[in-house]
Amino acid sequence: MKKFFMLIICAAFVNIFGACGAQKEVPQEMINDFVTLNSGFNMPRLGFGTWTLDDDTAEDCVYFALKVGYRLIDTARYYGNEVGVGRGIRRAIDDGIAKREEIFITSKIMPGNYNSPDATIDNSLKSLNLDYIDLMLIHQPGYNDEEVYRALERGVKAGKIRSIGISNYYTPRDFDRIKNIATIVPAVVQNENHIYYQNNELQAYVKKFGTVIESWYPFGGRGNTKKIFSNEIIQSLAKKYSKSPAQIILRWQIQAGYVAIPGSSNKNHIAENFNVFDFRLTADEMNLIRGLNKNRRFENW
Ligand SMILES: NC(=O)c1ccc[n+]([C@@H]2O[C@H](COP(=O)([O-])OP(=O)(O)OC[C@H]3O[C@@H](n4cnc5c(N)ncnc54)[C@H](OP(=O)(O)O)[C@@H]3O)[C@@H](O)[C@H]2O)c1
Asked: pLDDT tens for residues 101-123?
C-alpha cells in the first residue's frame, strides 16, 4: 500500500515537472534574482515568453510558469494573446500562487498600427484585465515611434504603466534617438540576443543610463534552437554541470547581466528553463561563451 502511494506521488511529481525530473529546492533569494531598473522597480532576470501561444495555450502555460516560480511574463498587443495571458495571471493570483505585486508583466505597442497609442495602452490593460502594466515597450522602430514613446510616458504619469522601454533598437544611435526626445529614459531595451548575436556594445553603452538589455530568442527562436543547443562549448558545459544546453544558455544570460525570456508551450521545458538557480558558470566559462559571438542575427526586423 505504502509503495502504491509513493508511486502516485512520483507520478504527480513527474506530471508537474515533466521528464526533466527532480527540481531541487531553490533558495528563495535566488528565485528572486532581479535587477533594479532606472525607474526604481525590480524586474526578475528570468521570465516566460509567450510569442506564438494562442489565448488558451497562453493561459495554461502562464499559469504553469507562475506555479513553477517565474514572476516575469512577456506578451505584446501584436501576439493577440493578452486576454489568455491575463487569465493565466488572474487564475494564479486567485489560487494564491503569487500576489499581483510579485508579478512583472510586460506588453508592447507596435508603432504605425494604431491611430492612438494612448487608447492602445487602455486596450492592453483591458485585455490583460490589469490595473497597471509593469513594463510597456515600443515593439519596434516605426514612423511614429517617438509619438508612441510620449504616449508611454503619459501612461506612466497616469499610473497605468510603471516602467517603459523600447524593443529592436540595436545601436547606440537608435537608442539615443528615443532617449533624446524622452523625459523618462528607457528602462529596458528588448532585443534579439543570444550566443551568436550578443548585444555587448549596446549593453555597455546603455548601462550608463541604467538601462538593461532583455533578450528575446535566447535559444535562437523556433527552427533555430538546434544550431544553438548543439554548440560544442554549450554541450560540454551541459555535461560538466549535468544541465541541459538550454539551462547553460539561460545561466549565461543571467550572469552576463541580461534579462532572458525563453518561450515554450511544453511544460517540461517551462519547468526546466526555470531550474537554473542552483549552479554558477565560472568567469572563464562566461568568457568562452562570450567568444562564440558571430554578430549573426536570425531575424531582420
Ligand atoms: N520584442 C520582439 O520583437 C520579440 C521577438 C521575438 C520574441 N520575443 C519574446 O521573446 C520570447 C522568446 O522568444 P521565442 O519564444 O520566440 O524563442 P526562444 O525562446 O529562443 O525559443 C523558443 C523555442 O525553443 C524551444 N524550447 C524552449 N525551451 C526549451 C528547452 N528547454 N529545450 C528544448 N527546446 C526548448 C521551444 O519549443 P517548445 O515550445 O517545444 O518548448 C521553441 O521552439 C518570446 O516568447 C516573446 O515573448 C520578442
From this structure: 999 999 999 998 667 899 999 99
Give yes or no for a contact between 22 and 14, defined as CB atoms under 8 angstroms apart: no
Distance in angstroms (rounded) separating the CA atoms of residues 185 and 164: 8
Write the CATH number for 194: 3.20.20.100
Q: Which range marks the domain in which residue 124 is found? A: 43-290
For the chain, what is the domain count?
Answer: 1
Interval 14-27 mean pLDDT:
37
Task: List helix spans (H) across 180-224.
Answer: 200-207
Q: How many CB atoms are located within 10 Å of the residue 78 CB? A: 15
Is 13 inside a domain boundary? no
What pLDDT digit, counting tens, does each position of 79-97 carry? 999 999 999 999 999 999 9
195 belongs to a structural domain: yes
Residue with CA nearest ligand 1 atom 27: 264
Residue 138, beta-bridge partner list: 109, 166
CA of 108 to the centre of ligand 1 (A): 17
Among 199, 225, 298, say which to mutate for ligand 1: greatest number of ligand atoms within 8 Å of CB.
225
Q: Is residue 262 part of a domain?
A: yes
Q: Which of 63, 79, 169, 197 is the catalytic position?
A: 79
In this structure, is residue 238 part of a structural domain? yes
